[in-house]
């Protein structure tokens, strides 16, 4: 099927299978920040923004994304630098495999709820982003710092 996708403000004309997940399309195009992990909506590693809201790209079909605005980590470079520095400062990055999906979701949190400081709300918002290496404490310290800038 022939579709047009708007990814990071650039239009891509593509031939995709009707049942192709957006995750596969994005990785085939070279957006390797979008990680392929559980592919069952459980880990959050494939998170991207679609029309400014976080979505699991393993769980949505590419054909459903026509006329929507898709943004990957590659399209968020300024904000990624800020939160990425806090994550590094707090030693919250170990293997780093979870980081791109986590960062996309943290950026969406700040954009949607810039004044939020409620710890429980923040943890609930980010609860879909799993990390196998850390205890989440470093990430939370980084998120608190990021919400203050
Ligand atoms: S790869 Fe999509 S949620 Fe795990
Ligand atoms: S740092 Fe390894 S999975 Fe999160």
UniProtKB/TrEMBL annotation:
Residues 1-76 form the 2Fe-2S ferredoxin-type domain. The keyword Iron applies. The keyword Secreted does not apply. One of its GO terms (molecular function) is 2 iron, 2 sulfur cluster binding. Keywords: 2Fe-2S, Iron, Iron-sulfur, Metal-binding. It comes from the Bacteria. Pfam families: Fer2, Fer2_2. This is (2Fe-2S)-binding protein.
């Amino acid at each position: 099927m022939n579709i047009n996708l708007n990814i990071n403000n650039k239009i891509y004309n593509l031939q995709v299978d009707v049942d192709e997940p957006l995750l596969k399309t994005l990785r085939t195009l070279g957006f390797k920040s979008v990680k392929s992990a559980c592919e069952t909506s459980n880990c959050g590693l494939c998170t991207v923004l679609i029309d400014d809201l976080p979505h699991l790209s393993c769980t949505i079909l590419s054909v459903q994304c026509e006329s929507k605005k898709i943004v990957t980590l590659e399209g968020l470079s300024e904000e990624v630098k800020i939160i990425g520095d806090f994550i590094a400062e707090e030693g919250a990055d170990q293997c780093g495999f979870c980081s791109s999906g986590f960062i996309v979701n943290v950026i969406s949190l700040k954009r949607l709820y810039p004044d939020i400081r409620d710890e429980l709300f923040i943890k609930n918002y980010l609860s879909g982003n799993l990390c196998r290496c850390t205890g989440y404490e470093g990430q939370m310290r980084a998120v608190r710092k990021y919400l203050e800038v």
